[in-house]
Structure formats: C-alpha cells, structure tokens
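Incident log, structure service

09:12 report received: a user says their structure output differs between two submissions of the same chain.
09:20 pulled the input from the user's history:
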Amino acid sequence: MADDGSTDMRRIFVEPEAFDDCTIYIKDKESISYISVVLRLKTGDALFVSDGVSKAYETRISGIGKNEITLHVITEQPFTDGYNTRITLYQGLPKGSKMDEIVRKSTELGVYHIVPVETARSVPDREKGAQASKLERWQRIAKEAARQSCRTSVPEVKSAMKFSDATAELKPEGYDIILALYELEEKRTLKHALQDGLHLMGHSGICFPKIAVFIGPEGGFEQYEVDSLIHEGASSVTIGETILRTETAGPAAVAMILYECEL
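09:34 re-ran on a clean worker, output below:
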C-alpha cells in the first residue's frame, strides 16, 4: 500500500521524551516536514503516534509551527505490532547499497531485529566513519518503512558485527529456532525445519517462537561458517532449487517464516 496520506497512514514515531502528560512535542525537522508537507495535516487533524517501544496514542494536532508541532493525546491505543513471532535477521553484509533494500523490505514484512554481519565473503567498508553513517541511514530507512507499513514499532538495526560474535550471541539470546539458508543444502527445507522446531516448542508450552535466520552475502557462506552455525544449534536449510540474490533471500525467508508460524 502506498503512503498517500490517507487516514490509516497518518502515523509517526517519536522518542519517549517527547511525551509530557497529555501533550506530545514534535521538534525534529524530519517529522515536522512529514506532518506538514508530506501529509499536509493541519490543526485539528488526527494523527497516530507511537514511541516504537511500548506506547501508542490517538492524537489531534493542537499547534503547527516552523520548529515545533504539538499534539493533544485523545486515547491510548493497544500496543501491538501484528505478529507475535520475533524474527531476527542476521544478514551477511552485501556490496553497495543492497542493505538499504534488505532493511526496507524486511521491516515492511515484520522483522523484529536486523543484524548486519561481516562474513568471510563480505567486503566490509573500512573507511573511517562509514559504518556509523550506514547504520544511521539503515535506522532511518527502518523507521520510514515501519511508518509506511503501519507498524507500531520500529525494528532495531544493530551495528555490524563479526560472524564469530554473531554466533556467540545465539545461545545467550535464547532463540527457539535458528535457520541458516545455504545454497548447497539439498535435503532439509526451511518449511520442514520450522515445522520440527514448532513441534518441539509445542511440547514445551511455548506459543510463539523467537527465531534467528542467517543469510549469506553475495557468494553465500563458507562451509566452516555453516558448520559453526550448526554447532550452535542452527538448521542448514534450502528454500528451493533457485538461487536467490542476497537482497531477495532475507525478505523471502522472513515472509515464509511468518506464513508458516502465523498466517
């Protein structure tokens, strides 16, 4: 659905500190421009507001200025993001701007966290400050995509980490299911791995899973990387006979997981 300014799309994300009792103060230029220029809202118009963490409100615009917009809180809304399944996408860092599209599409589909990972076949940007700049851009893209797709929360895009650090955090994070898409896997499908994992969870009384899915960069994973993931409890899986581009594989896997778990 396009962001055309219709009522159900009139929503923004604000920082928790913007809230003051029954008033919300919007001071960042991007949000002010979005409200006044893109949506062309005026005093008295309704606006849905979320802090992206735990609170959501129906508000009305009480004042529009060049440097500040004030909103009056009408009612607090139930905070829900549509899906109970929590998917963390561990994405092998691709070349160029491909990560932008991965963040955008994965956010639209409902991913919970996005973790860029430096794998053996990644080509990390060594320029000073480049990673910080990219992270800021990815976080902005996630926020814009969450707003466009009517999500209540914005997925966290974490700083890029080394592959060894990503595998080391799997057990502490307590994932119920860990999946690694691997182009050389010929037998075990993502569907079968999910079904097996969900079956085991059912016996444990867990209703909705916390899932990690690993996607390689261009060229995929090295065998030792897949072996490391399997050692940490991951299932090496295939999603079909065709080989997907890295920017396609992540969003495709997220969609398949949510279909199997919730739809």
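09:41 both user submissions now match this output. Likely a transient worker issue. Closing.
09:42 reviewer note: The chain has two domains: 7-77, 86-262. The mean pLDDT is 88.
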